Amino acid sequence: MYEKSPGNFSVDFGDFKDNSITAEKIANPLDLSKGVVGMNKWSEPTKSNREAAQKNRYWDNDLQQWSDKTVNEAGALGLLTGKSLVYATYDDDVKDQYGRIIHHKGDWKTDEYGNYYAETTNDEENIGKQFVTWTEVFTDDESA
After folding, report:
1. What is the chain's Cα-based Rg?
2. Smallest Cα–Cα separation from 1: which of 19, 22, 13?
3. Would you list the DSSP string of 44-93?
4. The whole model's pTM is what?
5. Rounded distance, CA 67 to CA 57, Å?
6. What is each CA distance from 7 to 2, 10, 11, 38, 140, in whole angstroms?
7. Cα(105)–Cα(90) distance, rounded to whole angstroms?
8. Hey, CA dihedral for 137, 138, 140, 144, is it positive or negative?
9. Any idea where the domains of the chain sit in the sequence?
10. Least confident of 25-39, 81-95, 112-126
11. Taking Cα atoms as reference points, which of 127, 88, 124 lies closest to residue 109?
12. Average of pLDDT values for 108-123?
């Protein structure tokens, strides 16, 4: 609650009922910023969906668990000698209990934190999937 000081005659702030600031955590896999480029406007992405997924752990479909390494940490040698990785996307439309589509076929999947990820290939056909190539992870994205 704000009370006007008797010595402050130049500015009248009125009565403040609630001066609390609300912060919320949202998924931001592309490192967007809001309010820096313009009032209440989002900036352009600083990385692509593929780059964002490379910085995240990948899902192992055979073990049904997250890998302990990110795609970048697995590196080019890991991709050449290990399991093939694809960028995780939905194979079919996903509907909620009311029949509304919540994810379209081809949309990027996100983990519990809202970050894009890659996954190991299944025994299914991978037509239409984007494979992670060794050239994408040969060097780290921040290296010169």
Report:
1. 23
2. 19
3. PPSS-HHHHHHTSEEEETTTTEEEEEEHHHHHHHHHHHS--EEE-B-SS-
4. 0.66
5. 6
6. 14, 9, 11, 36, 58
7. 5
8. negative
9. 49-136
10. 25-39
11. 88
12. 88
Query: Would you state the structure tokens that stand for residue 42, as one six-digit string?
Result: 């989002």
Position 123, amino acid: D
Q: What is the mean pLDDT of residues 92-96?
A: 90
> Backbone phi, then psi, for 79, in 5-degree steps?
-75, -35
Gap between the Cα atoms of 142 and 27, Å rounded: 21
Cα 140 from Cα 31, distance rounded (Å)? 17
Distance, in Å, from the CA atom of 70 to the CA atom of 58, rounded to the nearest integer, reads 6
How many residues are there in the chain? 144
Query: In this structure, which amino acid lies at residue 47?
Result: K
pLDDT of res. 74: 82
- Per residue in 23-42, pLDDT tens? 666 676 776 666 556 666 76
Angle at 68 between CA 82 and CA 92, to 5 degrees: 70
The owner of tokens 């780290």 is 140
